[in-house]
Amino acid sequence: MKATVREMRDDEERFCREAERQLLYPFLTRRQMKLWSEGEWPFMTQWVLADEDQIIGRATFWVHDCLKPRRRGGLPITILSLDGIFIAPENQHRGLGAKLFKKALRLAREELLKEGLGVGGLWIETAEARGFYERVIPQILAGRGLCQQSTIDIGATTLDLFHLSF
Q1: Looking at the whole model, is its pTM more than 0.85?
Q2: Of all residues in the chain, what percent are helix, strand and coil, respectively (each to 5)?
Q3: Which domains does the chain have, with CATH numbers?
Q4: Per the count of CB atoms within 10 A, which of 57, 61, 91, 129 is most buried?
């Protein structure tokens, strides 16, 4: 066999997505799998903090992973990742990042629940990001042992990964 790596063609995408759904995510519908693989709502949500028409900041959440329901008849569980949060420099250090994060996280969870998906945690990829969460949501992290740390080596790079359970 002479196998080569090439870019996936459009006509192959549906086959691959369905095979992945059947093998790894049988608890998701075909529609949900398509939305997730294409980064569509509610698997990726973007929120803005605005003062009337003036944009102050933006937060984007995406579904990092989906897990089978914890109990029979339960909802599949998603693990969210904060893809990015931005507050305009002139509005930083006023608590607006925390306000945006908390509200956007609540809204993202509500949208996923409408889709029949629960949220079980937040994937945190760096120690710097963990510092942000410790400042923004200390009541979740403080002394509750909910944040588990691990590392992944990718070539010469080591990533610190954290998983915050709700």
Answers
A1: no
A2: 35, 35, 30
A3: 1-38 (no CATH), 42-165 (3.40.630.30)
A4: 61
